[in-house]
Amino acid sequence: MTGALIIGLCIGGTILLIATLGLLIIGIIRASKTGGLSKKEKQVHTEETKMIQDIYHGLSRMEERVEALETILIEGQKKDFHK
């Protein structure tokens, strides 16, 4: 009786091992095909990238404006100093 139990456990364990390895292989194949991201995740990633680029460009323009204002203020201070 114990021999049948041991054989049953071995067969059950083997089936679970094969199923686990199969699912792991399927997961690896799917991840390699999609780059690890689903279509929805890729779309969200693309939108976030565009938003970050827009913020970066906006900050670059703001930096230029601040530099222009600094120049105007410095020139104004120089004129006031020479009076």
Task: Describe this protein's structure.
With 83 residues, this protein is mostly helical. The chain folds into two domains: 1-36; 37-83. It contains two helices and no strands.
Question: In a few lines, what is going on in this structure?
Answer:
This protein is mostly helical and 83 residues long. The chain has two helices and no strands.
Terminal CA distance: 111 Å
Q: Count helical runs.
A: 2
Oligomer: single chain
Strand tally: 0
Q: What are the key terms here?
A:
2 domains; mainly alpha; 83 residues
Write the layout of secondary structure elements.
Layout: H1 2-34, H2 39-82
